[in-house]
Design brief:
It contains 11 helices and 18 strands. The chain has 305 residues and is α/β, with parallel strands linked by helices. The protein has 2 domains: 255 residues, Ribonuclease Z/Hydroxyacylglutathione hydrolase-like (Metallo-beta-lactamase, Chain A, 4-Layer Sandwich); 41 residues, no CATH class. Strands 6-5-4-3-2-1-18 form a 7-stranded mixed sheet. Strand 3, helix 1 and strand 4 form a beta-alpha-beta unit. 40% of the residues are buried. The model has no long low-confidence stretch (mean pLDDT 96). It binds zinc ion (ZN) (2 copies). The site of one zinc ion (ZN) has 4 residues, from loops.
Length: 305
Amino acid sequence: MEFNLTILGNNSAIPSHGRHPAAQVLQMGNEYFLIDCGEGTQMQMNHFDIKRSRINYIFISHLHGDHFFGLIGLLNSYSLLRREKTLHIFCHQPLKALIDIQLQTCGTVLTFEIEYHFLPDKQQIIFENKQTMVQCFPLQHRIACLGFLFKEKVEGRKILKDKIEKYKVPIAQMEALKNGEDFVDANGTVIDNALLTADLPPARSYAYVSDTLFLPEIAAHIPQVNLLYHEATFKNEDAQRAADTFHSTASQSATIAHLAKTKKLLVGHFSAKYHQEHLQELLQQAREIFTETIISEEGKKYEIE
Ligand SMILES: [Zn+2]
Ligand SMILES: [Zn+2]
């Protein structure tokens, strides 16, 4: 299954130094999930060749402007492009009223339905399909804020094509083989399932931790994720500012990655006051605790592996 992440915005608060407010697109199989939708999200999609029309699910972590001010523009464009497919928005309840008042004031009647899924303030599965599971979990910020865990579903056994041909197993038997059953051929000979199938690779996962105070409990919600995007708004020397504004520092985000036994950490949501060279210092601070850390880059596609 395709499983990759494209960062559209990795800045906090104000667009600055060429960086944009929070937004990213996660591809899992045929689905494209938009995670947060800060100002400029549409322009970034154009810039990085992400097709708006492929997005059917949007996840908004919290209702600070740098995480959703791009949403009304995106909805308006969908309508101008005569979208018909239902759009699912996972968010805190007050967002609906904010969107409705804008649509009403502008006299905009959307060409498509929005189905809102209001998020709880605790860990919960919020979306599932055949291949994917999405869970939210609480963060600690100035207002209600959630992180998201996207997990691949891996069930059953992998069919070995060459063995299927060798033992002449009919197509009708494939589901049974995937479920671990043995195959009995026309002569009544039992072919062991282990000869025909193999283990599937372990399920991969991605976690998005947006605005939060350093909160060690987060690690328990995202055990052994393959890729973790964690906010690192501030460098270590600005720890007091981080605490005052309910954000995390470089070292704190790296500590979460370490506690969760993450494979790779991607840091973002940088303070608008930092130039690119400051980010190198921030990266070094994180790497002192968790070596597999990288600075998120807008437009870059990260494979979850
Ligand atoms: Zn933010
Ligand atoms: Zn915030």
